[in-house]
Amino acid sequence: MDEETDGTILANPVPSFDNPFRPHLESRVTEAKPFSFESRTQEMFQRREQRVNAVLEQEEKVHSEWLCTALIVSRNTHARNRLAAFCPGLPG
After folding, report:
1. Is the CB of residue 86 less than 8 Å from the CB of residue 67?
2. CA distance 50 to 67
């Protein structure tokens, strides 16, 4: 033990059972408030639509680049003439 203490043990006092603890509770009523996920779902659909449009534009760009490259390499002049409208700036 420490030299400062005299060796006594301090404990919590024994509770009095003559007067038991009875809390005073307020009776409250919870009111249900209407809610909706409509705005959240609309935002979600808009974001999804933007992502889909971005992917479609990217695919269209890749497809047109591929088509132009294929037409440049192609030796079939009939196919080149028919599909040249899809590739602006196609050489000769």
Report:
1. yes
2. 25
